[in-house]
Amino acid sequence: xxxxxxxxxxxxxxxxxxxxxxxxxxxxxxxxxxxxxxxxxxxxxxxxxxxxxxxxxxxxxxxxxxxxxxxxxxxxxxxxxxxxxxxxxxxxxxxxxxxxxxxxxxxxxxxxxxxxxxxxxxxxxxxxxxxxxxxxxxxxxxxxxxxxxxxxxxxxxxxxxxxxxxxxxxxxxxxxxxxxxxxxxxxxxxxxxxxxxxxxxxxxxxxxxxxxxxxxxxxxxxxxxxxxxxxxxxxxxxxxxxxxxxxxxxxxxxxxxxxxxxxxxxxxxxxxxxxxxxxxxxxxxxxxxxxxxxxxxxx
Length: 299
Ligand SMILES: [Zn+2]
Known about the structure:
Layout: H1 4-18, E1 25-28, H2 41-44, E2 49-55, E3 58-63, E4 67-72, E5 77-82, E6 93-98, E7 103-108, E8 116-121, H3 123-127, H4 141-150, H5 155-160, H6 170-180, H7 193-218, E9 251-255, E10 258-262, H8 264-267, H9 276-283, H10 290-294
Antiparallel strand pairs: 1-6, 2-3, 3-4, 4-8, 5-7, 6-7, 9-10
Helix pairs in contact: 1-7, 6-7
The structure holds zinc ion (ZN).
Zinc ion is lined by residues 243, 245-246, 248, 263, 265-266.
């Protein structure tokens, strides 16, 4: 799932291509994509893009007349940039946003269509799409630890809960916990001040390093291969590979269709976490699916 650094990479690539440009046509071919009826698609057509922003893991195109296009890519949704009027690819294509100089294609390489498009009018309606998590790169330590301690969860769950922190998913939470040398299953209520400080520092470091790295790697090119699995990652997607810090093999916990990767030597004092007691422990703490997690809203 595209997370904060990936979404920022998309925004970086989209700004020179669509900012101040008029949306000439919006072609939607997937019946599951558009989740709103009002405002109508016709209302956003012919409007100029005035701003681009990230809302959690969502990408927002702000148009004239306070109209907003909100896109959540979920797991397999991706953008591609093509020549104007480009055909929407048969099996993967969801929609096309046609601009004068090019077409922004929205695709989803999965049988299950989870990506979502919402149209809304006004800043207040847009706010309803904000799950409420704090921005990890904008907050000081006091707000960070308060947010984490507000609810008692395992730290892996807390990092990926959109009501607590904005823009972090399965991949970067693995990287953050590896950097912080913390077990993914430590309960936030039991974390010491020192552990929270390490987590805060690691969160900022990992997200800002990846943000800069991805933009540097792509330059002005449109990112065609946005993936949660990157060779420079330390733990995520590295099951069985050597930990870059200590050389011991990276471990995994598989639960609720997701895999968490960690280094036992660096993060859990050598303890392996994959056992039955673990499933019982997690059952009460982890939403059963990514959709469920992403749908959480601050009440
Ligand atoms: Zn290690």
